[in-house]
Every structure is written in structure tokens, then in C-alpha cells.
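Q: C-alpha cells for this one, please.
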Amino acid sequence: MVGNGSAIRKKFSQKIALILTFAFVTAFVFAFFAIANAASGSDFASASGQGYAVVEVTSGRLLASSNADARLPMASTTKAMTALVVLENTDLSDTVVIPKEAVGIEGSSIYLKEGERFTVEELLYGLMLRSGNDAAVALAVHTSGSVENFVAKMNEKAQKMGLKNTSFTNPHGLHDENHYTTAHELALIAAEGLKNPEFKKIVSTKNITVSGDGKETRYFANKNKILYSYEGATGVKTGFTKSSGRCLIASAERDGMEVVAVALNYYDYFELTARLMDEAFANYSMCRVVSPDYVYKTVPVTGNRKVKSADLKVKNALYYPLKKDGSERTETAVESVESIKAPHSASEAVGSVKVFKDNRLIFEEKLYTIDIERGGIFSLFR
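A: Here is the predicted structure, written as C-alpha cells:
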């Protein structure tokens, strides 16, 4: 009896030890992956590399960055360029007949059916609010005849913008090894888009109802939480794939300055972009560096007895983000004619104003003056 009791106790102790060992190993594995995820800021271990960038919209000045020039996948934030190319090459009122190739696209969808009819504008809302990959394909085919031709337009636009580290292979952002951008260049794409009033209107919309040809009404609510939680938010787009991690283009406008913050592969992308934009608004403000009220040079006039001199001015004011603490300055250089001979047209440029910061040209604006007629002695009596 005693021997049997010892055996039972021994087996019981072995079972307890086995259970404790299993629990310890399980806890260790979970802790390891939790730490790995926290360190990487990514949803999936397969997503590699991170980068963020903040730019001011009108000037494109880079205000903050980390690993901003690394080539990374960008998921559905791709659609910022898709929308921009569509807007530049179509009319919002154009009717789009949904083609077969736009039906059943992998990933996010607004569940388009072949033969349905929508306007370009309605599909753009489906593209940017609900991230419809099917809407991306439908718009691409409508705009350029095929997805391939549309992608060529996307890459052509990137080249015209001077982007060196951006490559598109599709209009929706599903993963492809040759489909990538950088945080900095994606911020510049979004800034270019925000200069377009229709683009800005669409990406800042929180929700909308779309009826298409009237057969089925769709309700689109924007996935971008920045619009609901951040003061002055204006857009732009979320994105996610297993390979890219969580991506976001956020934008906001305060006190006459609009900024774009891009986060590629950050788990806390809403919190990160909000903090980055807070810092930008706290540290920078828009300063007028060129003014149409200022006389940049006065030159003599010949050929008119009445007009002896002419003031040279710019037509437009230019603004640039500078640090609020006063630590940054710009320098201005004027290049112009030394005199003007009548007759002279006010539409003819007579020089330029160049604005430099840290010896780098940031703006150049043409100089003009008034209309000056040829005047002889009788012009004194007119």
C-alpha cells in the first residue's frame, strides 16, 4: 500500500512539473513576440523597415523625419497618387461603367458589380474613404484604357514631381516587390494632392452616401480616424498589408499652415502622426518672404517725358514655414533690368526676386511694373 502511494505521488508530481514547464514555455513565447512586436511597431514580423516624414504643404519643406528616404511598401496609401492622376486626367461627372476586371479584386472592396454605372466622383469617394481596390481598378481602366497604361501615368507623374525612390506597379497598393515609395516622397505626393480642391474635399469627407445608377445605394464612412480625433484634420489615407504593416498619411491645417505626416509601418500610426503634427504646429509658422506690397527696385524710364521712373514689384505673396523661435532667416536677391524704355507692357517681366535659405534657393518670383506708353512733348498736355 505504501509503495503504491509513493508511485502515485511521484506520477502526480511529474504531471505538475510538466504542466508548470508548459506554462512557463508558453508565457516565454508570448512575451518574446510581444517584445518583438513592441520593438518593431509592426503588426506582422514579415513587415520590415519603418519611416516617417512631416512636410508643409505649399512649400514641401521637410519639418521632421526618421528614415524618411528608405524604400518601403505603402499599401493603400498608394491611392493618394491614384486619386491625383484620375483628377488630372478625367472629369468628375464622367460616367464609369464597371468593367469585368474590376470585380472581385483582392482586399478592401466596395463590392462593385460588372455593368454598374457610377460617376468618377462617386468612385473616388469609394477609393479614398473605404479604400476600394475594385474602385481603383475601375478608375484606372476608365482613365487610361487599362491598368497597365494607368500605372504608366502614375510613374510619369512621380517622375515629373522629381521623385527618385517611388515606383508603382498597381493603382491599389496590394503588395509587389517593385511597388514602393519613401515616407518623404509619399508626403510630397499627398501635399501635391491637397493643392487640388477636389482632392482635398474628398479626403476630408467623413461619410457620404453614393447611389450610382440607382440600383444599389452605398454608404461610405472614412476609415481615417484622424478626421474624427484631431483638430483641423484634412485627410488623407490609411493603408495596411501583411508586408507593409500599418501605414498612414495624415494632414491638418491650423493658423494658415497645413502639414502632412506620413508613417510607414508603425503600429501606433494615429498617435505618432498626431504627435508629429502637434510638434510641427508648435515649432513652425508661415512667414511671408515675398510681398506684392514691397518695392524691390526702382529703375529710370526713358522715352516718356511724364514717367521718369518705375517701381518693380511681384504679383503674388509667398510664404514659407520658419521656426517660431526666430532662429531661422531667409535672404533675398534681386535681378532686374537697369532701366526701362517706353513703350513697356505691364505683362512683361523685368526681373526676378530669389529667396534663399541656408544658401539654397527656395523661391523665385518674377518682377513687373506698370504699363508705360511712348510719350513725346504732347504727352505733357494729355
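A few notes: Confidence is low (pLDDT under 50) at residues 1-12, 25-46, 376-382. The radius of gyration is 30 Å.
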